[in-house]
Specification:
Residues 9-203 form the AB hydrolase-1 domain. It holds the Pfam family Abhydrolase_1. The structure is a single chain. The protein contains 13 helices and 5 strands. The protein has helices at 3-14, 29-43, 56-61, 75-79, 84-106, 108-114, 116-132, 137-143, 146-150, 180-190, 201-207, 210-218, 223-230; strands at 20-25, 44-50, 167-172, 193-197, 240-241. The two termini are 17 Å apart.
């Protein structure tokens, strides 16, 4: 959970980034939470979460359905060669394929008619993940190791000190990959600005209306608001971390 300090901080310093916005979608939502937890309201202007999930310990503590943790392996399981075939078949072909392709496959009519560009993007992502080999199998497994990133020990959404007017939560009511109750819990916990999407599955709810999502995240306040709030000019175009 210290990656914001070890990996992100050098980038922020090198690029001379002041206060910033951060958002994450799907498996990246907990990483966005880690950034907000590390830097707090002094640096984080707003936090955006799309199709977010709760790590297993928190979801069970709140008596919510398990999130995606059970679909991913631990780092120790990955290093044991006996799981290699299972990894390739189950994670790369099933889990990753479903993550990227469930919306085009299950909700293709609504996606094609309403969001044709987003559907083309999702199909391209599915093709890259399944066929083109842009992600090495082992590298992808380590990136999504349950004990390292999916449940992210040390990352606790309850430790994020942002008010609801600075948090945006969008989630899919028909999401088959991440329980919708996780998004509902986060929205209620923060008192966040929330939008519930239906008819587009997990992948569709992750990508549609992105411009609108970012507009809600950044907000209509003029730049002078952020200058007054943080004691200096803020370039909003350069202040978003994804």
């Amino acid at each position: 959970h210290d990656w914001p300090l070890t990996d992100l901080e050098p980038v922020l310093e090198a690029e001379r980034v002041g206060p910033f916005f951060v958002w994450g979608a799907s498996l990246g939502s907990l990483q966005a939470v880690a950034v907000a937890q590390r830097y707090g309201p002094e640096r984080v202007l707003a936090l955006g979460l799309r199709t977010p999930y709760l790590p297993l310990p928190l979801s069970r503590a709140e008596s919510l359905p398990d999130g995606p943790s059970s679909s991913f392996m631990t780092s120790s399981e990955i290093t044991s060669g006996s799981f290699a075939v299972w990894c390739l078949r189950t994670l790369m072909l099933a889990t990753k394929g479903f993550l990227y392709a469930d919306s085009p496959l299950l909700h293709h009519a609504s996606m094609l008619s309403t969001y044709p560009e987003e559907m083309r993007y999702l199909l391209a992502m599915a093709h890259r993940a399944l066929y083109d080999g842009h992600y090495g199998a082992l590298a992808s497994l380590y990136v999504t190791a349950r004990d390292v990133t999916i449940d992210a020990p040390g990352v606790d959404v309850r430790a994020v000190r942002l008010g609801g007017d600075r948090v945006v939560v969008w989630y899919g009511e028909d999401d088959a990959f991440v329980p919708p109750s996780h998004g509902a819990w986060l929205a209620q916990h923060f008192g966040a600005q929330v939008r519930m999407l239906n008819g587009y599955g997990h992948a569709g709810a992750t990508v549609i209306d992105m411009a609108q999502f970012l507009e809600v995240l950044i907000g209509p306040a003029p730049e002078t608001y952020y200058e007054d709030m943080y004691g200096g000019p803020v370039d909003l175009d350069d202040a978003i971390i994804r």
